[in-house]
Amino acid sequence: MVFKSLVAFFLMGTSIAIAQTEQILIENVRILDHNKASLTAPMNVLVSGQKIEKISSSSISVKGKDVVKINGGGKTLMPGLIDVHVHMVFGALTMAELMSPDMTQELIIQKVGESSHKMLMRGFTSVRDAGGPIFPLKLAIDNGKLKGPRIWPSGAMISQTSGHGDFRTPEERSRRFFGKPSRGEELGATFIADGRDDVLTATRENLRFGASQIKIMAGGGTSSAYDPIDVTQYTFDEMKAAVDAAEDWGTYVMVHAYTPRAVQRAISAGVKSIEHGQMLDEETLKLMVEKDVWLSLQNLMDNNANMTPQRIEKRKPVLEGQNKVWPLAKQLGVKLAWGTDFLFEPELNDTQNSYILRLQKWFTNAEILKMVTNDNAKLLQMSGLRSPYPGKLGVVEEQALADLLLVDGDPLKDLSLIDNPEKNFLLIIKDGQIYKNTIKDKK
Length: 443
Known about the structure:
Blueprint: H1 2-10, E1 23-33, E2 38-39, E3 43-48, E4 51-56, E5 67-71, E6 76-79, E7 81-86, H2 95-99, H3 105-121, E8 124-129, H4 135-142, E9 150-153, E10 157-159, H5 175-178, H6 183-187, E11 190-192, H7 195-209, E12 214-217, H8 236-248, E13 253-257, H9 260-269, E14 273-276, H10 282-291, E15 294-297, H11 309-332, E16 335-338, H12 352-357, H13 365-380, E17 404-407, H14 421-424, E18 425-430, E19 433-437
Parallel strand pairs: 1-5, 1-6, 7-8, 8-9, 10-11, 12-13, 13-14, 14-15, 15-16
Antiparallel strand pairs: 1-2, 1-3, 3-4, 6-17, 17-18, 18-19
Helix pairs in contact: 1-4, 7-8, 8-9, 9-10
């Protein structure tokens, strides 16, 4: 009932006006070339519809009154940023707000809608949502009711009883024994599923709603109440059930896990993307290389004063591990992706771009820019035919989808440019449509 109401509220009202155009001609720009880790000579780029139609060092002739011409002034044209581990709904709300009896559906829509628009204005044109009631928001963005990035949705997180996705308050009892779904399940945030049959049903429910990949909890977490960080969650058969159902639909399973034991079990079950993994050892990382499994990592912030003593204690091995696993995974050749994983701390959203700069401890500027565009895009496309947006992302190439940023400067030399998107992102294009343009149209 709650989920159905969210759908209705997200789709209320009229479509938001954006700069609809048939073609966009961006002249005199230097394109970020991932293969050469450099900028090209000045080029001209023609966007037609949703794709990049032509790139040329020569003038491009266009006709028609619906052409927008933009003089790039020799600045940098690069792909839109991609964050592969976000929680669009729960990242916009605090836990107190979510649990408050005063929280209305209208207020949820307002907060989530504003947060989504701000994320797009920070240059993030695509994200992979790692769990939550995301389908109404995605539908509203795709239908032009709200502004925001492309979303690859996972749907409700699938968790065992007492697992990382068991959000029940102490007075909420088991649905299996007492028949009443928890508030988190009614909201579409989580499925508490035990046994192969329940996991199959939960996976198929998410696929029914349009999940592009499936998210299950394979180990303990730092923000959950019941599970120690070291525990392994879901048996092999339960995890294999989710993988079997996802693969039947041509997509994959991503798992929340930190420890070698949890990750090795997940890999044996056929999981293709490990989320977090800060506590992994060399043996497990080598196994990931051998089995062609992605490591979707974050570079987490230090503890803050608002965290409980329990959470601070649980985070210790994770924070210690992340300084080891990033360089080791790079050295071993693990497929690396990057995301933020902000959850119930909406004040962190404004720091999303700055978290990219934290990667400079382990990577060059060129490696970082490739990771948060091209490499992340490759992980998104693991969804295959379940991808909601067919086409190539993360590159500025002919026939690629037109998700573009015009940067005032050279981010290869000065990566801090992307940490001030309001000033330095002069042009933001998503799906061939202009969402921001601070350059006057060329007459």
